[in-house]
Amino acid sequence: MKQFIFSAFILLLLTGIKDASACSMLGLTGGAGYTSPFLSASTYPSNNPHNLNCYYRINAQSSSNVIKVNFRNVNVEVGSCCNTDYFAVYEGSSSTSRLIGKYCGQHSSIILQGRGQYMYIHYHTDSSVYSTGFEFQFIVSASATPSCDQLSIGGGPGTGFITSPNYSANYPHQADCRYRIDAGSATRTITLTFTAFDLESHPDCRFDFVEVRTEMNAHCAPNVRKYCGSTVPTTQVITGQQYAYIQFFSDSSVTRPGFRMEWTVSADPCSMLGLAGSVGHVSPYYSASTHPANNPHNTDCYYQINGESTFNVIKVDFTSFSLEANANCAYDYVAVYEGPSVTSRLIAKYCGTKNSFSVSGRGQYMYMHYHTDNSVHSTGFQFRFSVSASATPSCDQLSIGGAPGSGVITSPNYPLNYPHHSDCRYRICSDSNSTITLDFAAFNLESHNDCNYDFVDVRSGSDGDWTPNALKVCGTALPATLTFNQQCVYIQFFSDSSASRTGFSLRWTIAGVVPGPPGCTQLNLGGAPGSDGLIKSPNYPSNYPINLDCRYQVYSDCSSNNIAFVFLAFDVESHTQCKYDYVEVRTTANAHCAPNARKYCGSTVPATQTITGQQYVYIQFFTDSSVTRSGFRLQWTVSGQVGGSCNMLGLTGGAGYTSPYYSASTHPNNNPHNLNCYYRINAQSSSNVIKVNFRRFNLENHTCCK
Questions:
Q1: What CA–CA distance (Å, rounded) separates 506 from 440?
Q2: Whole-structure pTM over 0.70, yes or no?
Q3: Under 8 Å CB-to-CB from 333, ≥6 apart: which residues?
């Protein structure tokens, strides 16, 4: 006879975190529009104890809010870089977040602002001089200005500029713009040159300012610069750092024209960043590094070509091309970008050995990065560039899709021959990560082994960046159907100046989730044994809509129960593999092609299915964009032992609470076989500790408690 006897004593010793000082306040909270009272730091206005660490966390309840903290009557021991007594303020939920600054000394008021859901403050005193500390108040408001961040500037050698919003008109109130310049390597130099500067003035730059840092959390160091007023700051040269962080902030009062700042990332010795030419220009051939001799290992050379107009086309001809080969060009390569830097659209990466080939891009700039690793030597390449005016009207379609549906894309003039010098871009996007399918109905382009002349290039993603799985096709063979589980697909059709053909026609289909009619998604079905109900396809017994993806979840309160499904009616578009419309029953949410998945379509009513040993069953009803039928009607039932009477799911107590003793089921009598009892204790705070005391414990013994 199994013995299953115990009783449980639940003792809730609900205490705070041990290492959090009694002066801490981690639950400060307020939504937009809230203004707190003034709060005192520890024993303020009396002297605060030595060796103190107080922590304050402010929760603004939304990541789109702004938190302003007003410190007043500040009296904190002055130390070099505020390293003795201080309060450190972070833009985030902890001390690992971005450090706004560390503060000490005597001040009548210090006002700081951060954006996001949280701000965190650490007040520290050492073992020497006493001071009274401070009071503080926080105010939460909704963000009043659109984002002006630019966090992907640079990436390698190059130049550009940053301006305040609306420059050269006055900047807006309450701007908070963040800029990050990436040199690509700490071995390069970043130079910042202000060409114009006019901000509200203040001796400590408290109101409007530009701040430059070389570390996200740098404070009180030579590399921090804070500027305001109308004096143009001196040029700043940053060495030994990969990044420069810049913040522009304005408060709610005075505005000025703002600033314009030029940035430059120094070039490597083999780089050429001044290549330029207008329409008709053909450059001489340039050699990559030490070509035709073997190029050094660990080389990074950068080339920027300026075509002097956004309406021009830049063509780069490569010859004598010899780089270490790799299927994904992961070792030595030339990466070619359609734009001024490595943050522009990546046209492709090239490696291996080739006699000659050409790459074209449109716009004012093209940028190239030549990289070698530390293994195989190669001689590199030569290149030249030419600039021409765009010869064909724009054929771009960059806003296709947006929701489930289908449509057709064709080459210009289809089914007549496409024109020379075509460069058409198509972007198909869904409103979620849905499936995008491309079916080519016709295909006839000039042929070439590497598709160097005319081609269709298909890539996943919204920006058209090259990836190793990008597909480039030409010739007359009809490409296979392509399916992408991405939110966007980017397609380019390109033709050169010679042969032309009839082109292509392709149908795109987005088979995503369509907001269904009421009842299309039901995720809270089921419960205890004896629960039952009906699931019907939308509109049943009328025909269901197209493009549905309905999800149902049936739950049992114990995995030892049974969940049964009986189809009372069934009529779904038929297919031998149920590819079009179907009902699928699974016992795991993400199961695919597994023994426990059942997929049904057609008009044959599926057999009754009883599922055991599972707490959840998942059902999906999917329809495509074509045929519809009357659908299905399904009855579900949960059966098994009703064991819920021994459950206690509402046990609750706050800090300091001690519960009475509770008995497990029929204790002290023998408990029944096949029992499942559940107990849930709510301590009312995530910072509390729960202690449970079990006594008179008597359960069947097993080495693994099986």
A1: 4
A2: no
A3: 323, 326, 349, 350, 351, 370, 371
